[in-house]
Amino acid sequence: MIVMTIISAVSLLVFVGAGVMKNKLGSTRW
Asked: What is this structure's pTM?
């Protein structure tokens, strides 16, 4: 399904984005 692919892509982007932000901020409150 196209919807599942979009949801998976968005989830992956959010996960990667959170990881990048975590690295940039250092170990603040994560």
From this structure: 0.57
> At 29, phi and psi to the nearest 5?
-135, 25
18/23 Cα distance (integer angstroms): 9
DSSP symbols for the chain: -HHHHHHHHHHHHHHHHHHHHHHHH-SS--
Cα dihedral 18→20→23→25 (10° resolution): -70
Summarised one tens digit per residue, pLDDT across range 1-20 is 899 999 999 999 999 999 88
CB proximity list for 7: less than 8 A, separation 6 or greater: none
